[in-house]
Amino acid sequence: MREGKRQAAVFLDRDGTINEEVGYLDRIEKLRLIPGAAEAIRLINESGMKAIVVTNQSGVARGMFDEDFVHQVNTRLREMLRAEGAAIDGLYFCPHHPTEGLGDYLRTCDCRKPAPGLLLRAAEELRLDLARSYMVGDTLKDIEAGVRAGAQGILVRTGYGEEAAAELVPDEEPRKNGDMMPHRVPIEKAGTQGETAIVRPVHITGDILDAVRWLLKDRKT
User: Fold this and answer.
1) Residue 166's CATH number
2) Looking at the annotation, which residues are catalytic?
3) 37, 65, 84, 145: which has the fewest C-beta neighbours closer than 10 Å?
4) Is residue 34, in this structure, part of any structural domain at all?
């Protein structure tokens, strides 16, 4: 039997990208959507691309909350988005931490961003075309995870995005459409080893809605 064509996706960080960054989201009442987030995800839905959330939740490892609570928050997030006509096609999280944690949660894993494991797992399970996909997030770890998975990274200035943008340095190579200079940062600065490899967001913008509007135009060029 011939396998169907793989689909493009928009991978989305959760805290600071879709919902407001509040430190550790340890109470459901703290869950508040960033303005425009539902519209952004609705645009992804309408485009035919998949909307996939990939999020680090080291609060589990640190004993602040358990995996059941993360599922509860994610369920509530889906409900809030659904109320505004937006749907998440997949949601993946990492509960581990390499240096702080309890029991089996204390370990170096392949799913904690900037490792690309969550994206690779989603691509395998949902038959996604990573080369035609994007990763939208507010940290350099998000961008690195996307780049290492084979997708293009877009940095937003919500959440920790302003701090992340400040770490980037201008590159000398012009972008293909010439609308702005790209930026880069050594991967070692984003949390891993590697002196020559770089993290290169293809775009830096205000928020998730700006990011999605941009990528929908970019994929047509």
Assistant:
1) 3.40.50.1000
2) 13, 15
3) 84
4) yes
